[in-house]
Amino acid sequence: GAVVSQHPSRVICKSGTSVKIECRSLDFQATTMFWYRQFPKQSLMLMATSNEGSKATYEQGVEKDKFLINHASLTLSTLTVTSAHPEDSSFYICSARAAYGYTFGSGTRLTVV
Amino acid sequence: AQTVTQSQPEMSVQEAETVTLSCTYDTSESNYYLFWYKQPPSRQMILVIRQEAYKQQNATENRFSVNFQKAAKSFSLKISDSQLGDTAMYFCSTGANSKLTFGKGITLSVRP
Protein backbone atom coordinates (compact mmCIF):
# COMPACT_ATOMS: atom_id res chain seq x y z
CA GLY A 1 0.00 0.00 0.00
CA ALA A 2 0.81 3.72 -0.05
CA VAL A 3 2.21 3.85 -3.56
CA VAL A 4 3.17 7.08 -5.29
CA SER A 5 3.43 7.05 -9.06
CA GLN A 6 5.58 9.67 -10.77
CA HIS A 7 5.65 10.41 -14.49
CA PRO A 8 7.53 10.77 -16.69
CA SER A 9 10.62 8.91 -15.52
CA ARG A 10 12.79 10.67 -18.05
CA VAL A 11 12.25 13.76 -20.16
CA ILE A 12 14.42 15.74 -22.52
CA CYS A 13 13.25 19.19 -23.50
CA LYS A 14 14.58 22.17 -25.37
CA SER A 15 15.74 25.24 -23.56
CA GLY A 16 12.91 27.72 -23.13
CA THR A 17 10.09 25.18 -23.11
CA SER A 18 8.05 24.00 -20.11
CA VAL A 19 7.86 20.52 -18.65
CA LYS A 20 5.19 19.05 -16.38
CA ILE A 21 5.89 16.26 -13.91
CA GLU A 22 3.00 14.40 -12.32
CA CYS A 23 2.86 12.71 -8.94
CA ARG A 24 -0.13 10.52 -8.07
CA SER A 25 -1.00 8.70 -4.87
CA LEU A 26 -2.52 5.44 -6.10
CA ASP A 27 -4.13 3.88 -3.05
CA PHE A 28 -4.40 6.65 -0.51
CA GLN A 29 -5.27 10.31 -0.29
CA ALA A 30 -2.40 12.71 0.04
CA THR A 31 -3.34 16.13 1.34
CA THR A 32 0.31 17.06 1.37
CA MET A 33 3.02 16.18 -1.11
CA PHE A 34 6.64 17.21 -1.24
CA TRP A 35 8.88 18.00 -4.20
CA TYR A 36 12.61 17.43 -4.04
CA ARG A 37 15.54 18.03 -6.31
CA GLN A 38 18.59 15.82 -6.19
CA PHE A 39 21.99 16.24 -7.81
CA PRO A 40 24.20 13.18 -8.38
CA LYS A 41 25.66 11.70 -5.20
CA GLN A 42 23.96 14.36 -3.10
CA SER A 43 21.05 14.48 -0.72
CA LEU A 44 17.47 15.40 -1.48
CA MET A 45 16.82 19.12 -1.38
CA LEU A 46 13.26 20.07 -0.54
CA MET A 47 11.88 22.53 -3.07
CA ALA A 48 8.31 22.94 -1.92
CA THR A 49 5.43 21.48 0.02
CA SER A 50 2.28 20.99 -2.01
CA ASN A 51 -1.04 21.32 -0.19
CA GLU A 52 -4.30 20.14 -1.71
CA GLY A 53 -6.57 23.05 -2.52
CA SER A 54 -4.15 25.77 -1.50
CA LYS A 55 -0.92 27.41 -2.56
CA ALA A 56 2.32 25.54 -2.25
CA THR A 57 4.91 26.53 0.31
CA TYR A 58 8.30 27.07 -1.27
CA GLU A 59 11.66 26.72 0.42
CA GLN A 60 13.96 29.68 0.55
CA GLY A 61 15.79 30.24 -2.70
CA VAL A 62 13.33 28.31 -4.88
CA GLU A 63 11.77 30.41 -7.62
CA LYS A 64 8.00 30.18 -7.39
CA ASP A 65 7.46 31.39 -10.94
CA LYS A 66 9.87 28.88 -12.40
CA PHE A 67 8.68 25.85 -10.48
CA LEU A 68 4.89 25.94 -10.56
CA ILE A 69 3.15 23.49 -8.27
CA ASN A 70 -0.50 22.54 -8.47
CA HIS A 71 -2.28 20.18 -6.08
CA ALA A 72 -5.83 20.22 -7.36
CA SER A 73 -6.98 16.89 -5.94
CA LEU A 74 -6.20 14.55 -3.07
CA THR A 75 -4.33 12.21 -5.39
CA LEU A 76 -2.46 14.44 -7.82
CA SER A 77 0.24 17.04 -7.54
CA THR A 78 2.11 18.48 -10.52
CA LEU A 79 5.39 20.32 -10.84
CA THR A 80 5.86 22.43 -13.96
CA VAL A 81 9.33 23.67 -14.79
CA THR A 82 8.70 26.79 -16.85
CA SER A 83 11.10 28.23 -19.40
CA ALA A 84 13.54 25.47 -18.64
CA HIS A 85 17.28 26.06 -18.96
CA PRO A 86 20.20 23.63 -18.86
CA GLU A 87 20.85 24.48 -15.21
CA ASP A 88 17.39 23.06 -14.39
CA SER A 89 18.59 19.64 -15.50
CA SER A 90 18.35 17.42 -12.46
CA PHE A 91 16.53 14.55 -10.80
CA TYR A 92 13.16 15.52 -9.32
CA ILE A 93 11.39 13.34 -6.75
CA CYS A 94 7.96 13.67 -5.20
CA SER A 95 6.88 12.27 -1.86
CA ALA A 96 3.75 11.96 0.22
CA ARG A 97 3.16 11.26 3.87
CA ALA A 98 1.53 7.87 4.38
CA ALA A 99 0.42 6.02 7.48
CA TYR A 100 3.78 4.47 8.28
CA GLY A 101 6.05 7.19 7.00
CA TYR A 102 6.85 8.93 3.78
CA THR A 103 6.59 7.24 0.42
CA PHE A 104 8.40 8.40 -2.69
CA GLY A 105 7.83 8.45 -6.41
CA SER A 106 10.42 6.85 -8.65
CA GLY A 107 11.76 10.22 -9.77
CA THR A 108 12.05 12.14 -13.01
CA ARG A 109 15.34 12.77 -14.73
CA LEU A 110 15.04 16.09 -16.56
CA THR A 111 17.56 17.02 -19.21
CA VAL A 112 17.32 20.45 -20.80
CA VAL A 113 19.23 20.81 -24.07
CA ALA B 1 14.16 23.45 13.03
CA GLN B 2 15.66 20.07 12.25
CA THR B 3 19.16 19.02 11.27
CA VAL B 4 20.56 15.62 10.40
CA THR B 5 24.27 14.86 10.28
CA GLN B 6 25.85 11.93 8.52
CA SER B 7 29.57 12.47 8.79
CA GLN B 8 30.78 9.40 6.89
CA PRO B 9 30.52 9.94 3.12
CA GLU B 10 31.45 6.39 2.17
CA MET B 11 31.81 2.95 3.71
CA SER B 12 32.68 -0.46 2.43
CA VAL B 13 31.87 -3.86 3.90
CA GLN B 14 32.58 -7.45 2.98
CA GLU B 15 29.61 -9.57 2.01
CA ALA B 16 28.07 -11.37 5.01
CA GLU B 17 29.73 -8.99 7.46
CA THR B 18 28.06 -6.40 9.67
CA VAL B 19 28.27 -2.64 9.17
CA THR B 20 27.00 0.32 11.17
CA LEU B 21 26.05 3.65 9.62
CA SER B 22 26.12 6.67 11.93
CA CYS B 23 23.63 9.49 12.21
CA THR B 24 23.03 12.31 14.65
CA TYR B 25 20.16 14.72 14.58
CA ASP B 26 18.65 17.72 16.25
CA THR B 27 15.02 18.73 16.41
CA SER B 28 12.76 21.07 18.30
CA GLU B 29 9.84 18.68 17.97
CA SER B 30 8.65 16.70 20.98
CA ASN B 31 7.02 13.95 18.94
CA TYR B 32 8.97 12.96 15.87
CA TYR B 33 10.02 10.03 13.74
CA LEU B 34 13.39 8.90 12.52
CA PHE B 35 13.94 7.03 9.29
CA TRP B 36 16.61 5.34 7.27
CA TYR B 37 16.04 5.33 3.53
CA LYS B 38 17.99 3.39 0.93
CA GLN B 39 18.57 4.73 -2.57
CA PRO B 40 20.01 2.10 -4.92
CA PRO B 41 21.36 2.96 -8.39
CA SER B 42 17.76 3.01 -9.68
CA ARG B 43 17.36 6.10 -7.44
CA GLN B 44 14.07 4.84 -6.00
CA MET B 45 13.87 5.86 -2.34
CA ILE B 46 13.10 2.80 -0.23
CA LEU B 47 12.17 2.90 3.44
CA VAL B 48 14.54 0.66 5.39
CA ILE B 49 13.38 1.24 8.93
CA ARG B 50 11.58 3.78 11.07
CA GLN B 51 11.61 4.64 14.75
CA GLU B 52 9.08 6.59 16.76
CA ALA B 53 10.92 8.85 19.16
CA TYR B 54 8.60 8.08 22.05
CA LYS B 55 9.44 4.37 21.87
CA GLN B 56 12.50 3.28 23.82
CA GLN B 57 12.76 -0.07 22.10
CA ASN B 58 15.04 -0.08 19.09
CA ALA B 59 13.32 -0.88 15.81
CA THR B 60 14.35 -3.96 13.84
CA GLU B 61 13.46 -5.15 10.35
CA ASN B 62 15.05 -8.49 9.52
CA ARG B 63 18.78 -7.78 8.96
CA PHE B 64 18.38 -4.10 9.75
CA SER B 65 18.30 -2.65 13.25
CA VAL B 66 18.86 0.70 14.83
CA ASN B 67 20.59 1.96 17.94
CA PHE B 68 18.44 4.87 19.04
CA GLN B 69 19.95 7.00 21.78
CA LYS B 70 17.44 9.76 22.37
CA ALA B 71 19.41 11.76 24.90
CA ALA B 72 22.45 11.75 22.64
CA LYS B 73 20.26 12.34 19.57
CA SER B 74 21.92 9.46 17.82
CA PHE B 75 20.27 7.06 15.38
CA SER B 76 22.66 4.54 13.85
CA LEU B 77 21.73 1.76 11.45
CA LYS B 78 23.22 -1.71 11.72
CA ILE B 79 23.11 -4.00 8.71
CA SER B 80 23.83 -7.63 9.52
CA ASP B 81 24.83 -10.31 7.02
CA SER B 82 25.45 -7.67 4.35
CA GLN B 83 24.34 -8.60 0.87
CA LEU B 84 25.42 -7.30 -2.54
CA GLY B 85 21.96 -5.81 -2.95
CA ASP B 86 22.58 -3.58 0.05
CA THR B 87 24.95 -1.49 -2.08
CA ALA B 88 23.28 1.93 -2.20
CA MET B 89 23.20 5.41 -0.73
CA TYR B 90 21.63 5.51 2.71
CA PHE B 91 19.93 8.58 4.08
CA CYS B 92 19.05 9.24 7.68
CA SER B 93 16.10 11.55 8.17
CA THR B 94 13.76 12.97 10.74
CA GLY B 95 10.28 14.42 10.54
CA ALA B 96 7.26 15.20 12.69
CA ASN B 97 3.94 15.88 11.02
CA SER B 98 5.48 17.89 8.24
CA LYS B 99 8.49 17.76 6.00
CA LEU B 100 11.40 15.39 6.27
CA THR B 101 14.92 16.61 6.82
CA PHE B 102 17.67 14.46 5.31
CA GLY B 103 21.31 13.97 6.07
CA LYS B 104 23.88 14.17 3.30
CA GLY B 105 23.81 10.43 2.87
CA ILE B 106 26.43 7.71 2.91
CA THR B 107 27.46 5.52 0.00
CA LEU B 108 27.70 1.92 1.12
CA SER B 109 29.50 -0.60 -1.04
CA VAL B 110 29.25 -4.32 -0.32
CA ARG B 111 32.25 -6.25 -1.63
CA PRO B 112 31.82 -9.82 -2.88
Describe this structure in words.
- The complex is a heterodimer of chains A (113) and B (112).
- Chain A is mainly β and 113 residues long.
- Helices cover 0% and strands 54% of the residues of chain A.
- Chain A contains no helices and eleven strands.
- Chain A has strands spanning 4-7, 10-13, 19-25, 32-38, 44-51, 57-58, 67-73, 76-81, 90-97, 102-104, 108-112.
- In chain A, the strands form two sheets. In chain A, strands 2, 4, 5, 6, 9, 10 and 11 form a seven-stranded mixed β-sheet that branches.
- In chain A, strand 7 and strand 8 form a beta hairpin.
- Chain A is globular.
- The model of chain A has no long low-confidence stretch (mean pLDDT 94).
- Chain B has strands at 2-5, 10-14, 19-21, 24-27, 33-39, 46-52, 60-61, 64-69, 74-79, 88-95, 101-102, 106-111.
- In chain B, strands 2, 5, 6, 10, 11 and 12 form a six-stranded mixed β-sheet that branches.
- The radius of gyration of chain B is 13 Å and the shape is globular.
- In chain B, 34% of the residues are buried.
- The mean pLDDT of chain B is 95.
- The interface between A and B is medium-sized, with 20 and 21 residues.
Which short descriptors sum up this protein?
heterodimer, A: 113 residues, mainly beta, 7-stranded mixed beta sheet, 4-stranded antiparallel beta sheet, 11 strands, B: 112 residues, 6-stranded mixed beta sheet, 12 strands, globular
Low-pLDDT sequence parts of chain B:
none
Using the alpha-carbon principal axes, give the shape of chain B. globular
Ends distance of chain B: 41 Å
What class would the helix/strand composition of chain A place it in? mainly beta
The shape of chain A, in one word, is: globular
Poorly predicted segments of chain A: none
Residue share in helix of chain A: under 10%
Cα-to-Cα separation, first versus last residue of chain A: 37 Å
Number of E-state strands of chain A: 11
Class computed from helices, strands and strand pairing of chain B = mainly beta
Describe the largest sheet of chain B.
6 strands, mixed
